[in-house]
Specification:
Length: 160
């Protein structure tokens, strides 16, 4: 016995996924731009600047796709569960930066998970254009998350 799935009758999961992705990327831009002035390590700074540019491109890809689907774009920010680490009242700027980097790393993994869902929803709906955007954005998020992960030992050794 084979079970066949009926095609998705509406593109609501796709449009909602794209809208959520746009909100997440707008939030990501804000977070990255907030911590960028605090980063003194040239390697980390370079990666952050590069990812800010990638994120701007991601916003553009998503906005273009939403427009192609006839959906108005937004500059609204995501309302994801807050990912924060408590700070001691006497936390040094170095400790604050570490917390910020931890938050960015967690946020990037949240985005990666979102793109995994959007990729699969798009595939199920036969929406190749959205699937390609989800794949490209996820690839960039994974690379940046890996860059952060590779810098963690340096951060722990207090060299960042």
């Amino acid at each position: 016995m084979t079970i066949s799935r009926a095609p998705i009758a509406t593109n609501e999961p796709i449009s909602r996924g794209l809208e959520d992705a746009l909100k997440m990327e707008n939030t990501s831009l804000e977070k990255l731009n907030m911590i960028l002035p605090e980063v003194t390590d040239p390697e980390m700074r370079k990666k952050l600047v590069q990812h800010v540019e990638e994120t701007k491109e991601q916003v553009q890809r998503i906005s273009s796709r939403l427009q192609a689907l006839g959906i108005q774009t937004t500059t609204e920010k995501a309302q994801a569960p807050p990912i924060t680490f408590p700070r001691a009242p006497n936390a040094t700027s170095e400790m604050k930066l570490r917390d910020d980097i931890k938050n960015v790393y967690a946020w990037k993994n949240f985005e990666i998970a979102h793109y995994e869902f959007l990729k699969n929803q798009s595939k199920l709906a036969g929406d190749d254009a959205t699937k390609k955007i989800a794949e490209q954005n996820q690839k960039e998020e994974k690379k940046f998350a890996k860059d952060i992960q590779n810098l963690i030992p340096k951060m722990v050794e207090r060299r960042l």
